[in-house]
Amino acid sequence: MEKSVLLVDDKQEIAKIIMLYLSSTYKVSYKENPLKAIAWLQEGNLPDLIISDLNMPEMSGEEFLVYLKANYLFSHIPVLILSSVESSSNRIRLFEEGAEDFILKPFNPEELRVRVKRILR
Predict the structure, then answer these.
(1) Is Phosphoprotein a UniProt keyword of this protein (predicted)?
(2) Which residues of 58-78 are buried (b: 16+ CB within 10 A; e: fewer)?
(3) pLDDT digits 0-9 by tens, 86-99
(4) Residue 96's domain is classified under what CATH number?
């Protein structure tokens, strides 16, 4: 069965690149912010992986991660965080909050593909 990925990023250019790389292997759904993603999840959609940007308006990727991990319906879904800020203290905090992986932007799309494959195997 085809694995599904929810992509949450307010920058559509980046989302298009990610979807281009992942859509041949996975069913990719896209939401431009965490609030829309939460509404989509609450409709009963349960992806196998969530890829979320860290810095977004309204609700940050970190707040989204904390929400997901605190909710028993979604806490089992692995979350891969994308960020343009290189900070080991940020990464450590995100891992402590339950992030499965972290990729620094700009990233090599092939690295993203391999990391997603590793998480979903």
Answers:
(1) yes
(2) ebebbebbebbbeeeebeebb
(3) 889 999 999 999 99
(4) 3.40.50.2300
